[in-house]
Amino acid sequence: MPLLVALLVGWAVVAGWFEAESPVTPKTSVGAAVPAFSLPPLEAMEAGLADGDLRGAVSIVNFWASWCAPCREEMPFLFELAQAPGAAIYGVNSRDRMEAARRFLSEAGDPYRRIGVDADGSVSAAWGIYGLPATFVVDTGGRIAHARIGPLDRRAIDEDILPLLDRLRTTP
Q: pTM value?
């Protein structure tokens, strides 16, 4: 009998997790305007992040969490992008604990101009993110110019993102 109760409780937890993910999660696509959002800052930081911050200049938005191993693996590429001309990098910490996120940044470094905290994952869902990390290039008008679900790698940087940043920087 205890095994049956444990199985039922486990099923309820899993069913609740998938229900929270919502099967009608909007899929943000290239060319679409970034979803409206406003996120508080990571504790001890001055400013959070909002959709208005992504207008007027080319931006890179990276969704990450401390518990995400591929997020740690892509950090050198984010630092490289932070040094590239033409875009500011913003972070969205998704479904994470504040202390774990701060520890992650103290160990891996912080390439972000600002970080917004998406504690419940609702902003990630609005962007259509189903896994971390996820990285978006946003043009000066606040429209998504590139989307990548999964960790950045050398090919993505050299063949997709850097050439796109060059085009966006030189296009009026």
A: 0.83
